Amino acid sequence: MTVPDRLLLGSGPSPVPRRVLDALAQPTIGHLDPAFAEIMERCKDRLRQVFQTTNDVTMPVSGTGSAGMEAMVVNFIRPGDRVVCGVHGLFGERMADEMRRNGAEVVVVEGEWGRALDTARLVDALDERTAALFVVHGETSTGVRQPLDGLAAACREHDALLMVDCVTSLAGAPIGIDEEGVDVAFSGTQKCLNVPPGLAPFTAGERALERLEPGRSWYLDLTLLLGYWSGGGGGRSYHHTAPINLIYALDEGLQIVLEEGLEARWVRHLDAHERLRGELAERGFERLAPEGEALSSLLCVRVPDGIDEAAVRRSLLLDHGVEISGGLGPLAGQVWRIGVMGEGARPEAQDRLLTALDKLL
C-alpha cells in the first residue's frame, strides 16, 4: 500500500513527527499487561502536566475528540438539567445538539462566527437552576479563542460546572485547567499534540466527580472506565481493549511537548501564527478573528474575491502535497482554515505552503 506524503496544514489532523510514528510501530502487547499499565500511568501523568492540572481523573478516552465531548455529557449532564451553551461556531453547535440529545434544557448564548462571545452574556444566562456552562476555548471552525475570565467564579456562585472544549488549543495556546477553574475538559490528539486521531484527552475535577453516577453510555461510562485506568497492573478491571499503539504514540507526543516546555511552545505557536498572518496579508488574505480574539494554533483567513478557493485548495493538495481546510457553515466558500499546530507551527512548513500558493496565484 502506498500512501501519499502530505504536509497537513489544515484544521486537523496535523503533521505527525517521526518519533511518534516510531512509537506507534512498537510491538503490540496486551491491554492488561503490567508493562502497558506502566505506560498508561506515565501517559496520565504527562497529560496532567499538559492540561496543567492535579486532577486524578485525567486520561485519554478511546475515541476521537467527539468521544470526549460525549463522555463529558453522558457522565455529568442529566435529562432535564439546564445547561448554558456558548455557540459562535460549528463546535458550539455540536455540543448544544449533544446536550439536547441527552435530554438537557439547553440555553444557547449565540454569537457571530469569527468573534469571541461576550463573557458577561454567558454569566448573565446563569441562574440557580443551571447545572453547567459549556464553552469552546478554541473554535476550530473560525480560529477564535474564547476568553474564560470570570466564568469559573460565576459558575461556582450558581453551583454549576464549567465545561470546556480545548481540542484545538491544548498544547498550542495557554489554557491551565486548574488556574482557570475548569471542572471538565476534553481535547483531541490530532491537533497540537501531533498524534494520529483516535484518542480524546479528558480531565475532570472533584466538583464534577461529586455528581458522577453511572452514565447512559456503557462504553463511555466514567465509573467503569476508572476501573480500567486506575490502580496498578494487577488491580485494573477489564472494560474494553484500549488502542494500545495509539497510547504509545500519545505518550511519545506528550513527551515531545514537555521537552519543549509549554510556555516555549505557546510562544512558538503565537510567533508562527503572526508570521503566517503577515505573509498572507501581503497576498490579500485577511484574518477573520480580530486582534485579541484569535486562536494562535489555527489561522482562519478570508479568501479574496476572484480566487476559486476550492480549486486552489485542491491543487495545493494534489499538485503540491499541502493540505489546508475550507470554511464550514456560513463561512463555506469564503475562508481558509490553516493549522498552526505543533510541527505545523514552524517556518519550514509555512514556507512550503507559501511557495506553493505563490505558484498557484
**Strand line-up across the major sheet:** 2-10-9-8-5-3-4
Q: Which outline best applies?
A: globular
Which stretches are poorly predicted, pLDDT < 50 over at least 5 residues? none
Order of helices and strands: EHHEHEHEHEEEHEHEEHHHHEEHEEEH
Largest sheet: 7 strands, mixed
How many structural units, i.e. domains? 2
Report the count of strand segments.
Answer: 15
Architecture per CATH nomenclature, i.e. the level-2 architecture of the largest domain:
3-Layer(aba) Sandwich
Structure report:
The protein has 361 residues and is an alpha/beta fold. The protein has two domains: 7-13 and 262-360, Alpha-Beta Complex (Aspartate Aminotransferase, domain 1); 18-259, Type I PLP-dependent aspartate aminotransferase-like (Major domain) (Aspartate Aminotransferase, domain 2, 3-Layer(aba) Sandwich). Helix content is 39%, strand content 17%. It is built from 13 helices and 15 strands. The chain has helices at residues 18-24, 34-51, 65-76, 90-101, 119-124, 151-157, 177-180, 206-209, 222-229, 244-260, 262-282, 309-320, 347-360; strands spanning 7-8, 57-62, 82-87, 105-110, 130-136, 138-139, 144-145, 161-165, 184-186, 199-204, 286-287, 298-302, 322-323, 325-326, 335-339. The chain has a seven-stranded mixed beta sheet, with helices on both faces. The chain is globular, with a radius of gyration of 20 Å. The model has no long low-confidence stretch (mean pLDDT 97).
